[in-house]
Amino acid sequence: MVxxxxxxxxxxCGKKFxxxxxxxxxxGCENVERNNREISFDKISPVGHIQEFFLAxxxxxxxxxxxxxxxxxxxxxxxSKLGDQASVAAWVGENGGALNFWLSFGSDLVILAVAxxxxxxxxxxxxxxxxxxxxxxxxPLGIAMLLITTFWSAFASQIMPGETNANAEGLMSIxxxxxxxxALFAVILAPFVEEIMYRVGLFTFLKRIHPALAYVGVGxxxxxxxMHSLTDPVEWLYFPGYAFGGLALSFIYDKFGFGxxxxxxxxxNGISVLLTLMSYFAGPKA
Length: 286
Ligand SMILES: [Zn+2]
Hints:
Elements: E1 8-9, E2 16-17, H1 49-82, H2 85-94, H3 96-119, H4 123-127, H5 138-159, H6 168-177, H7 179-209, H8 211-225, H9 233-256, H10 258-282
Antiparallel strand pairs: 1-2
The structure holds zinc ion (ZN).
Zinc ion is lined by residues 10, 12-13, 15, 24, 26-27, 29.
């Protein structure tokens, strides 16, 4: 069996390349040995196993560091403008929405920059997936995904009614600050960064070990990062919905590529954001 974690030396030009590639990227000769395996990486964007490993760790390890960094930066800017601690505390108390927005937007931008630095010159592999017209399939698939997860949430809220989402209040304050900024973040930036971390990173890395492990791994991780507490039974009730989302996006990525899974994620979040904004603007103003 071919080891998918070890670079292959091209028999024709002698240069090293990723063993999951269909052909040598240097001279174009076919990777015959790879074709003996049943597992295809042709539709997805393998950027190298080491890069994939670090992309997979971005959320789990680096996100906290990025948030602390952005938070320190915001506090530093506020302190240098306002001068003393009491004024900074007062500003934060009055501008929770601005703070929440810049904290999530800023740390996702930092994560994106780190992800681009990790992928580096292999970034065109990701962009290439948009050349496949099947990326548009992500739109109907994203709608289907949203219907199923919404159905699950409705079911979960029927079992345990009266439980509100911990995020709801924070979200309202962000909308008060910048509805457009929120839409850009939730519809474009967050899905792009998440698709890079979970599909290009975690899924592709685990697929080198075994495709089934890739699906199970991403489903569990995607479900768990959306939980606020692992001991709260209510949170576990919502787990299957998120795990399904992780599985569905992985399937779309696996079959149609990064362009399609990004479009599905964008569509899913886009409709949710549209509904949120509609009820926000239609609702009573504080
Ligand atoms: Zn070659």
